[in-house]
Amino acid sequence: MDFLHTVLTQTGLPFRNPGDARTWERQQGGAALRIEAGAVADPRTGGFRTVGVPFGEKARLVLIHLTGEALRTGSPVVDVEDSLTAYVRGLGLPTDGRTIGTVRSSSRVFRPRPCGSPTSRRGGRRR
Fold first, then answer.
1. Which tens digit of pLDDT belongs to each residue from 62-115?
2. Number of Cβ atoms within 10 Å of the Cβ of 64
3. What are the helix and strand counts (H, E) for the chain?
4. Measuring CA to CA, how many Å separate 2 from each of 19, 36, 48, 59, 84?
């Protein structure tokens, strides 16, 4: 069984690529979500490179999987497979080049600590 936080079920991720946007915000009723793009290590340059905001159905699937794994293990650190192909296979998706490319591009910021996703509910505590 997988899990998605209540705020994310009400607000979600962008459906389409938001382009060069560095933040993405959504409010629905008493729920508010702000996703901030970040940076990831670039082994080719030894520095960092910026990445965009996650988007699309594959990114939502990855987020649901990561959230469920974090709850199952009781840890904020989620172990993933040794390769993207193995990870995509574990999600139950086809491992063709198109699907792997879509998962890679649409969920690129779910790598270790590349983005912040503060969520809130009005009138309640931050979750």
1. 888 888 888 888 988 887 777 888 888 888 888 998 888 887 776 655 544 444
2. 17
3. 4, 5
4. 29, 24, 32, 14, 20
How do 47-50 and 31-36 pair as beta strands? Answer: unpaired
- Helix ranges (DSSP H) in the chain: 6-11, 56-73, 84-90, 97-106
**Cβ burial, residue 127 (10 Å; 0-12/13-18/19+):** exposed
- Kindly state the tokens that stand for 59: 């990114």
Q: How far apart are CA 73 and CA 49, in angstroms?
A: 30
CB-based contact 107:54 (threshold 8 Å): yes
Residue type, 101: G
DSSP state of 32: E
